[in-house]
Amino acid sequence: MDQFKDLRIVDNFYQTSSFIPMPTILIGTVCESGQTNLGSYSLCFPYYIAGKDYYAMILEARNSSNTAQNILRTKKCSLNFIPDDKKYFKEAVRLGFPGDKTEDKMKNCIFTLKNSTLGEDRPQIVEEAFQVFECTWDDTLEDAYKDKAGNLEGYEPPYRNFNGITSKFGAHFILKVDKIWMKERYYDTIINGVTSNGFPSVPVDYGYRDSTNFWCSRFKKPFKEKIQAKEGDVQSVIYCAQRIDPNVKFTKEACAKLTKIPRIFLKAALTQMVDIAKEENISLIDENALTIINDKRRKEKKDK
Ligand SMILES: Cc1cc2nc3c(=O)[nH]c(=O)nc-3n(C[C@H](O)[C@H](O)[C@H](O)COP(=O)(O)O)c2cc1C
What we know:
Bound molecules: flavin mononucleotide
Strand content: 15-25%
Number of helices: 9
């Protein structure tokens, strides 16, 4: 432990006591006049990623911000992920200055706003973003619908644990992801296969540091690291495959093609393959059948 020093944990530890890489997101919300407000946010991460009725992000925000007040009032927001560009980050820092009114801050905004296609009550979205999530706040969790907009001087207790007003000046919002919009180039990357040139230029925000500057780093082309299949894996795939369904068998060659599936996901993946095989009247999954099944799995994933 000689190489580490014990650092005091203080308020805003994610930037005052550590280095956390974060996204740069402009959050669009609708203010009382109907105009779209853009606020800069980095504490916004995936929250429900699987196994729930919906997918969600979590946002941590100052509760008196335009964004928090608008979400409390209208529930809708757009999460606009901006690419690495110094002029965009400069603008994000300007849009992140606390206390500015929507009308003033949006007057000379350099970003292009486009109407949402999901409804007239929705905030506009930022054309320059590489991806946009349109979201609705789930105010049913923790009865957060009881929290109302309008209190800009700080909220009094009691506070909620994880959704709604969570402290005098803080709020957390669990945001149901209604739609993910992806720029075509990166859509192709996700659907047709990843190459190192197919990633959007994602900047990394390191937060508000030394009390005067926000710090950000430039995008660098990603590199890949192969996941090694472990020896003996064919036997464990065969063992598992034999136990899924007595009416659907896998050949050894097919099993050999499945060794890269991590052990903990193996049963679920094989079960899904057997279900598709049954729909297709396949009772022996060989390499050919596996291609048909995997195509169908990919298509189902795409259609979801
Ligand atoms: C890059 C960047 C990231 C920020 N991230 C957050 C954040 O995650 N949560 C937060 O409450 N404020 C954050 N801020 C500060 C807000 O942008 C600031 O409170 C601003 O007033 C929000 O705008 P609004 O009032 O129009 O919502 C960030 C500012 C910048 C420049």
